[in-house]
Amino acid sequence: MSGILNPEVLVLGAAGTVGSGVVGALLEAGSPVLAVGRDGPRMQSLAAHFADEPALEIMTPGCISNDEDAAKLVAILRQRQRPLRAVFASLATPLESGRLLDKPTDFLRNKLEYDLLPHLAAARHLIPLLGEQEGMSHYVLIGGPHAECGWAGYGHASITAAALRMLTNVLHEEAQALGVRVQMLAVDKPLTTPDNARNACAEWPSAMAVGRHAVSLLTRTERTRAVVPFDAGRALTPPRALFSEFSFPLATRETNS
User: Which of 65, 96, 172, 256 has the fewest CB atoms nearer than 10 Å to its CB?
Assistant: First the structure.
């Protein structure tokens, strides 16, 4: 087939609460979305929720844990021969409470292995791919509410979140030479979800609000800092279709559909 295609956006951790909000905000903004997440009920629920959205594609492999996983994903993306304009990364394991002093050192080691190193593996392979595109590309991480000060009872998560924020600052500097803007949207409050809605505070944002602010980073050229605090005023429906300024020809090729 032939025609015009808008650039795609990749969402890592799409099956999570924040990831699903980013997926929804991107689809709302008119962007084709490639969703990557751990295969299971949550990814199936995401696919079912957006079953009527032809712009959403669920991708395999389903998650990134190391360099090998990231390299496989990039190989698949190259085979698509379609421009990739942005990557959103929301990779984290469920929170587990406990005092830092009460847990063995391996607990922190595992937390870093599962919540920090996958981000580095993904960035090492995807940022160079984004750098091959014409114009500015974006790599956006989503940070949680416990990076600047210790979160009582969740010290391991606070340490990992602080390390992720520093990783963002380093990648922000290193990726500039490649034409890729790396940023983190730092969400300083828990999210309101259907499970906690009864007890949630009024100022807690929804996943969709976080997604909308994250998507707005793709269009706001003045926000050049590495870490951007969440702002409910930026969590608005986009005024126009995302990437409407781009016009990429779609080469004729065979498809399996």
Answer: 256
Q: How far is residue 225 from each of residues 109, 129, 181, measured CA to CA in Å?
A: 29, 22, 9
Q: Give the tokens for residue 165.
A: 């924020």
Instruction: Give the residue from 126, 233, 229, 232 showing the smallest Cα distance to 180.
Output: 126
Contacts of 50 (CB under 8 A, 6+ apart): 23, 24, 27, 56
- Which residues, including other chains, have CB under 8 Å from residue 14's CB and lie 6 or more apart? 20, 22, 23, 33, 35, 36, 37, 43, 46, 58, 90
Exposed / middle / buried, residue 47 (Cβ in 10 Å: 0-12, 13-18, 19+): middle
Three-state secondary-structure class, residue 214: helix
Portion of the chain with pLDDT greater than 70, in percent: 89
CATH number for the segment(s) 3-250: 3.40.50.720
Q: Which pTM does this prediction carry? A: 0.89
Longest dimension (CA), the chain: 61
What is the Cα Rg of the chain in Å?
18
